[in-house]
Amino acid sequence: MTSVVLVAKYDEAARNGDVEDWTSNDDIGARFAGEVLSPAEYYRVEDRYVDFVRSLATACGVTEFVIRAPTVSKSLPPWVPLLRSGLVVDPETALKLIRRMLRIGDLSCVLCAGDDLTVGVETDFYLSVQADDEKLAESARRFGLHLYPAGGWSWFDPDGGVAVLGELGERFPQDVRRLCGAGRPVVVLERWANGPGGERWHLLEAADGLDWTLGLPSGVALAALPGVRIKWAPRRDVVSDIGVGLGDEEPVVVVARPQPDVGSALEAVVFSGGVHHVEEADLPLGGELGWFAYPDVGDVSGRSLAGVIPGKEGRVDALWDADLTLIR
Description:
By secondary structure, the chain is an alpha+beta fold. Helices cover 21% and strands 26% of the residues. The chain has a seven-stranded antiparallel sheet, covered by helices on one side. Strands 11-10-12-17 form a four-stranded antiparallel sheet, with helices on one face.
């Protein structure tokens, strides 16, 4: 029988709050049940979690995982692949991702191996796992971890009744060129994961081509946003201009002009918390910067200005809703 469970180091007393216990590496240096959590102890427990998943993957005969529902909050180190739904990774890369999710939390994803094994990392140092009951119990026993039922658990937001983004149509390039030909630069959002670290912004002028879209992997979503107008200002004036032009908590995107060697891609920083979180030191490099309110992309998703890059034989490897939020 296959079940979904939560896996943790906590016994019932710690899980119920009767005994104090640490819940993340941010607790290193703090005291719990009379003991100070040392880096060595944290890493020892983290290793148990990673070794548990390794053992379970081996027992289930898993040779690869498929990434689903990734969220990336910031730029990631070079060893981390471009996390997108449908990406296939080997078990060792999957284990590295699990370790990073446990330790840092700047990314999240669900690792799926068909019907054999599914693994996610949850808050407060829990794993969510679906696998054969006997194999789960044996691997948990081996590494001193506890299993708790997770009835009704789902890793993915329900998509019933949600407007789903279709594949990118043949009209997309010509419609974008038509907008540019009208003398209006067009902002294009490229998104491969949820979160600011899973997107890139492009500024297309009339002479810019769209050949770069041909090299994008399947599952990536694109949306041309003709309603976005970038307001340019000297660097020293950008923060004050944003304060005048936007509400205090309205998310804002600050960009530098594209460099010749990177095509249409803008260097961009998203300030999700609004103008109060915009610091000069966090701005992109450049003497002149642009900014715009983070747009609502839902009004273009039903037309030919948005869609998902299809995979082989037109298959769509990722499910996005009409607001370009990745469902799975």
